[in-house]
Amino acid sequence: MALPHGIVHVEQLPVEGRRVFVRVDLNVPLTKDRKVSDDARIVAVLPTIRHLVERGARIVLGSHLGRPDGKVKPEYSLEPVAVRLAELLAADVVLADEPVGDGARKVVSDLRDGQIALLENLRFDPGEEANDDGFARQLASYADVYVNDAFGTAHRAHASTAGMVPHVAVRGAGYVMAKEIDVLSRLLGDVDRPYLAIVGGAKVSDKIEVLDALLARVDVIAIGGAMANTFLTAQGKQLGKSKVEADKLSIARNFLRKASEAGKTVMLPTDVVVATGLDADASEVVSIDGVPGDLMALDIGPASIEAYRGAAQRARTVFWNGPMGVFEKPRFAAGTVAVAHALAANKLALTVVGGGDSAAAVAQAGVADQVTHVSTGGGASLEFIQGLELPGIAALAVK
Ligand code: ADP
Ligand code: MG
Question: What are the pLDDT digits (tens) for 62-76?
């Protein structure tokens, strides 16, 4: 796999007998009694760790967990993560009881070839998020080689993602990071057309930069979710009690004008599923011209689903971010599930899903393994798709 900007894949790095610091994303959800409730992020980084074990590297893992805000808080200890990681690898994982310091240094210097240490939660130290140079140099002093496999934090310039990197002579991308860079960069290059973007979710304000950036590259944008309500209102439709960002109507109008000037197709729902609220036990489908004044639009309707499905079938490149409705509630999940299936059914297209809730929706629809790529980074994938420079990726580039 040839990565852009001269970024080196972990398989190409000299790691035998060397101390390799790997920034991983082990920020997993825990149960009340502090057990790992979803180990997907741990499983995701196993290929990189296994590769390094097989090559006889001395592995130093670093991650954050939650938001301890620069203080040592036992409830944010990586201890349960170390236990689960050791189970999955069927190998010992030594947890240092601090991110840096004499104890951490000792754990690292005791490592033999093929052994694994995990530093305690990097965010126990305020230097991590502040990207403090002193903290970054301490982390770097544990490493001969730096590997980043935490795409989800690549858009943050923290000590472990950016600050420490120039202080380590050799650097590269792990399997997770390399696949993200490979697939997402393809979306920024010469793609097969038509190129369709499906954008939904909660707010226009969250996504307007993403929409603007996509507009320059795609042929068709299909809009759904609460975001569509604001666009439809901007077009003069009455949306009843739906979630509408009244202060974003001119942004929406501008976007629609720019799209039409550029000859791009913008698809908006022609029908919606309406109800009294998220927990309503009744709902109905109405035309976009007939939304009752006392009801809210909570999903796209069947005619809109057909139109978006057709666009997904014709497309040869698809990027999807943002659910089409309140997919967390089965009554309002049909639009989102249909879009997920439409992407999965198109085997001729490059199909990429980005965004935390969108990734959850694709998993919920049971088709996560039938699209080309589901990004592990919510915010990071949206920044990448805008063509922005991510500090964690820029730091890996060979200068
Ligand atoms: P992502 O995390 O994939 O980027 P967002 O965070 O932008 O997606 O949006 C997801 C949220 O948008 C979900 O919680 C979903 O319930 C909500 N949502 C989608 N459609 C609607 C709607 N019509 N009304 C209210 N909320 C909606
Ligand atoms: Mg979200």
Answer: 999 999 999 999 999
Cis status of the peptide bond prior to 166, with omega within 30 of 0 = no
Are 171 and 238 in a shared domain? no
- 198 and 133, same structural domain? no
Residue 215 placed within a domain: yes
Ligand 2 centre and the CA of 267: distance in Å? 22
Q: Going by C-beta distance under 8 Å and a sequence separation of 6 or more, which residues neighbour residue 353? A: 319, 320, 321, 343, 359, 362, 371, 373, 374, 375
Nearest-CA residue for ligand 1 atom 15 is: 326
For residue 171, give Cα distances in angstroms to 147, 255, 263, 378, 397: 6, 41, 43, 24, 8
- For residues 299 and 228, give the distance between their C-alpha atoms in angstroms, rounded to a whole number: 10
Residue 166 lies in domain: 10-177
CATH number assigned to the domain comprising residue 308:
3.40.50.1260
Q: CA torsion, points 79, 82, 83, 89, in degrees to nearest 10?
A: 180
Q: How far is CA 393 from CA 7, 121, 154, 173, in A?
A: 8, 22, 6, 9
174 C-beta closer than 6 A to ligand 1: no
230 Cβ below 6 A of ligand 1 = no
Pick out the chain residues at pLDDT < 50.
none
The answer to whether residue 4 is domain-embedded is no
125 shares a domain with 247? no
| 193 and 223 co-located in one domain | yes
**Coil, helix or strand at residue 370:** helix
Same-domain pairing of 199 and 321: yes
**pLDDT at residue 174, as a whole number:** 98
Please indicate, yes or no, whether residues 164 and 216 belong to a single structural domain of this protein.
no
Both 223 and 323 in a single domain? yes
Which amino acid type is present at position 292?
Answer: P
Residue 228: both structure tokens together: 């569509």
Q: Is 224 in the pocket of ligand 1 (CB under 6 A)?
A: no
Give per-residue pLDDT as tens, 138-148.
999 999 999 99
